[in-house]
Amino acid sequence: MDSTFEQHVIAALADYLGVDTADLSLDQHLENDLELDSTEFVCLLVSIEKACKVELAGLRFADMKTVRDIVAAVENRARTLA
């Protein structure tokens, strides 16, 4: 079963890109598959912060390669704040 954070990240990404959630997968590469750049990544993080109610300041685009990496970072931050 998908985690709530996974669902929120996928939904935010789909909304940002203007695609259906079914068109996204955890293993898609942010730059190569989804064509996100660092500026777009920051905008996406703001959407994810609002959806997940977790602070993501300090996450670096260079450290995030796939959608799965973003989900893991959000889950890690949520555990840290709990």
Question: How would you describe this structure to a colleague?
Answer:
By secondary structure, the chain is an all-alpha fold. The protein has helices spanning 4-17, 38-52, 67-81. It has one domain (4-81): ACP-like (Non-ribosomal Peptide Synthetase Peptidyl Carrier Protein, Chain A), CATH 1.10.1200.10. Helix 1 (4-17) crosses helix 2 and helix 1 crosses helix 3. It is globular and about 30 Å long. The two termini are 22 Å apart. The mean pLDDT is 89.
Straight-line N-to-C gap: 22 Å
- Specify the overall morphology: globular
If you compute it from the alpha carbons, what radius of gyration comes out, rounded to the nearest whole angstrom?
A: 11 Å
How many strands, which pairing sense, and closed or not: the largest β-sheet? none
| Uncertain ranges | none
CATH architecture: Orthogonal Bundle
The CATH topology annotation reads as Non-ribosomal Peptide Synthetase Peptidyl Carrier Protein, Chain A
Question: Summary?
Answer:
The protein has 82 residues and is mainly α. The chain has helices spanning 4-17, 38-52, 67-81.
Please render the helix and strand layout as text.
Layout (H helix, E strand, L loop, with lengths): L3 H14 L20 H15 L14 H15 L1
Helix pairs in contact: 1-2, 1-3
Features:
82 residues; mainly alpha
